[in-house]
Amino acid sequence: xxxxxxxxxxxxxxxxxxxxxxxxxxxGADVFTxxxxxxxxxxxxxxxxxxxxxxxxxxxxxxxxxxxxxxxQMPLFEAARSAFCYEGDxxxxxxxxxxxGRELSEALAGQMAPFLREGGAFAGAQLLVCVPMTxxxxxxxxxxxxxxxxxxxxxxxxxxxxxxVLVKTRETEAQKGLGRRARADNLRGSFxxxxxxxxxxKTVVIVDDVxxxxxxxxxxxxxxxxxxxxxxxxxxxxxxxxxxxxGAENVExxxxxxxxxx
Length: 262
Description:
Blueprint: H1 3-18, H2 39-44, H3 68-72, E1 79-85, H4 89-98, H5 104-112, E2 127-130, H6 135-141, H7 145-157, E3 166-168, H8 180-187, E4 191-193, H9 196-199, E5 203-211, H10 215-226, E6 231-239, H11 251-259
Parallel strand pairs: 1-6, 2-5, 5-6
Antiparallel strand pairs: 3-4
Organism: Candidatus Borkfalkia faecavium
Protein name: ComF family protein
Pfam family, one: DZR_2
């Protein structure tokens, strides 16, 4: 039997045993377990570990309570966490996820799920919602990537996903290139809770792909708390690490100065 036929038979056997996703989501290497990333990538990918802001969850340069951005303006959500830092191969994977690679939702959600399980930062969550898109924007892309993540997390953690709870009422200017204040102005009033009873009195987790400044999550959190949600958290696949303002030599010195730490 030639090599091509052997390879085809082997691939068919792996699909039958392990399912359709038998290669690493990051590098394409063969994976012989139910894990969606190979062992090498699990060591190399930029997981969001170490020092993080206790509020927005982004990586910071030292063990300080909050980052400079949160100190200047506290987010409306209770807290946020992310599986990865938005850098390196994760930037490539997120971009692929947004531009047709919808199968990546399974791998990304798998790394987000521990935050929702027993012992996780958001254990006890009662409802998942995604950052909604307008119908026109969803049709243009073909799917809402945040909804795909929420659907996978619902399967993995058993927490209901409120598909129709939130709606986006109007198109907004692209957020890329806008500062935090401009992003907030751009999004103000663009989200509405369609099913108020679904979130009233509950602990709700907003699911999204990337947190940059937190402006989008703030706008969604404002709508949810206005509809009676008890607590609102944010869980993303990745977050942009916190950076010092212009003129600061590094994150550590900037945070020390802001918090009056000698």
